[in-house]
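[job 4471] stage=fold_predict status=RUNNING
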Amino acid sequence: MQLERVVLTGVGLTSPLGDTLVDLRANLLAGKSGVSRFETRFMGEVFAGICHFDERKFLSSKDRRRGTRAGSISVFCANEALRNGGVDLAAVDRSRVGVYVGITEHGTVETENEIAAIREYGYDTKYWTHHHNPRTVANNPAGEVTINLGITGPHYTIGAACAAGNAGLIQAVQMLQLGEVDLAIAGGVSEAIHSFGVFASFASQDALARHEDPTKASRPFDLARNGIVISEGGCLYLVERLSDAQRRGATIIAEIAGYALNSDAQDPVMPCTERMVECMSLALRRARIKPHQISIINTHATSTPAGDLREAQAVRQLFGDFSHTYVNNTKSFIGHAMGAAGALELAGNLDSFQDGWVHPTINIENLDPECAVRNLVINRPLQIGPVEYILNNSFGMLGINSALIVRKPS
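[job 4471] inference complete, writing C-alpha cells
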C-alpha cells in the first residue's frame, strides 16, 4: 500500500545544552557537556542534565502551580515547535490536531513531593493536594499542551520507556497516514531528575554513573564507563503529510522515511542484540533502503557496560562493512533524557543534512575494544560531506526497541 509521505516542519526543545536547535547543535559541535552536579532528596549530590528554560514563557503562574514539570516542558516545546514551523493555530482546525508525547514514566515526581509535604504534618492526608490526580494521570504532559493551546483533537502519551521519543513520532506518522489528524505535535519529554526514586533505583542496580568530574561521567563505549547520567528535557516536532506541508509553503526539516518498534521478550533490563538488529532491519525495509545508504547512526548507548556492548554488536552486525556510515552518541553530552532521549538526540543530528558535519561521542579516553564500531566519531566533530539518511536508535526497559530513519528534504 502506498502511504503518504510524512515530514517534520518545526521543532521545539529544551535540553541541558540549550533551549533552541541552534544552541544545542553549536554545543554538540563544540564538544561541550551539559552535565552538572545536582542536589536531590535523600540522595544528596548526584550528576544530572538540567534544563533552564523559562517555565513562564507560555504559562501563567497559576497554571504552572496547578501543573507539572513535565507538563511545563511539553507546553514550552509545543509552543516553540509551532512558532518554529510557522503555524498559526488561529488559522487551523484544532479538532484535526493531535498531540502525542512519549514518556518513560509520569507521576513519580508529584507523588514523592506530596508524601514529603504531608510528612511535615504527621502524614495527615487532609493536606494532600487536590491537584494530585490530574498531575499524575499518564496523559498529563500531552493534556497540558491541549489545554494551553486550545487543541481539541486527540491527545495521549506513549509509555515506551526510553524508546518513547521515537515512539511519539511514530504514532504521529501513523495517525497522519490514517487520516485521523492533519497536523501532529509529537516527540518526548522527561522530568526524571526531580524524582529521587529514579536515581535510587539506578544506584541500587549499580548503574548510576560515577566520576570525579560530572562533565565526564557519561562516557558511552569507554572502557571505564560505569553507568547512566539521568537528565531532563523535551523535544516536540510539528509533523505533517508532505502534501499539506507543501501546500502551506512550510520549510521541511526532514522526511520520516522509515521506522520500527519491536520487543526483546526476554529480560526486564538486559538488552538483546538480535532484536536490535531486527528492529533496525525493519526500519530499513520500510524506508526501502539498504544499510550502506545510512550516513549517520545516532546510538542509544547509555554508558552502561552491558547495554553499550549489545548495541555495538548490533551495529557491527548490520553496518560493519560500510565505509560511509558514521556513528555517534548524544548521551555523552547531555546524559540520558529518558522519554525525551530519542527526540532530542534526533534533533541534535538534523543539521547534518545542511552542514555535513557529524557531532562526536565525547568522553572516550580508552575505547572499549568490544564496543569498537567502524567510523565511530570520537571527541571531535567530523566533516563527511553530503548526508542523505540518519538512523536514530532508542531502546528501553522491558525490552522495547525503536529505530527511526529520517531523510534529507528533497
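[job 4471] summary: The mean pLDDT is 97.
[job 4471] exit 0
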